[in-house]
Amino acid sequence: xxxxxxxxxxxxxxxxxxxxxxxxxxxxxxxxxxxxxxxxxxxxxxxxxxxxxxxxxxxxxxxxxxxxxxxxxxxxxxxxxxxxxx
Length: 86
Prior knowledge:
Blueprint (H helix, E strand, L loop, with lengths): L15 H4 L1 H4 L2 E3 L5 E3 L5 E2 L5 H11 L1 H13 L12
Antiparallel strand pairs: 1-2, 2-3
Helix pairs in contact: 3-4
């Protein structure tokens, strides 16, 4: 089990770039402020904690969860194969 941040996904979050960005790569933003998993279509409300979303990926999408953890440590874009370590 990885270490999780207890943070609500919102645009006002001060640490959004560092702690939520890798997870956001795997979510669609919905009109109501919620999010939808790009892998399985699971929806999350606009006040869903990042812990819940991380658990979802760890339990149901282990390969993507591994990429999220790697991106969180290396700050790479999982969709850009040309991006170098920062």
